[in-house]
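step: validate -> pass
step: tokenize input -> pass
step: predict -> running
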Amino acid sequence: MYHLTNGEIPIIGVGGVGSGHDAYEKLKAGASLVQIYSMLVYKGPGLVSRVRRELAEIMLENGQRKVEDVIGIDHEEIYWRRREDRSRNERTQEKIIVDE
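step: predict -> pass
step: emit ->
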């Protein structure tokens, strides 16, 4: 779906999310949001913190600091184009201070 929409439409990754690894896989496939529902019933509210912590650890191990750095990484052509666009936008929004 990510490929068909060219990464332009938000996708919610659902089903079987019970760990940070599960969430990471959904994000890599192109999900911009991940739903944790069924596993929450079985494992309780502490699951959210555990998934978040595990996801952060996996991202840091892979040199990723923001969720945006993970979304769609399995689709290289779209991923790199979108990452380049984000970098360009960040650079144009930077404030430049010049001493006179």
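step: describe -> The first helix runs from residue 20 to 29.
step: cleanup -> pass
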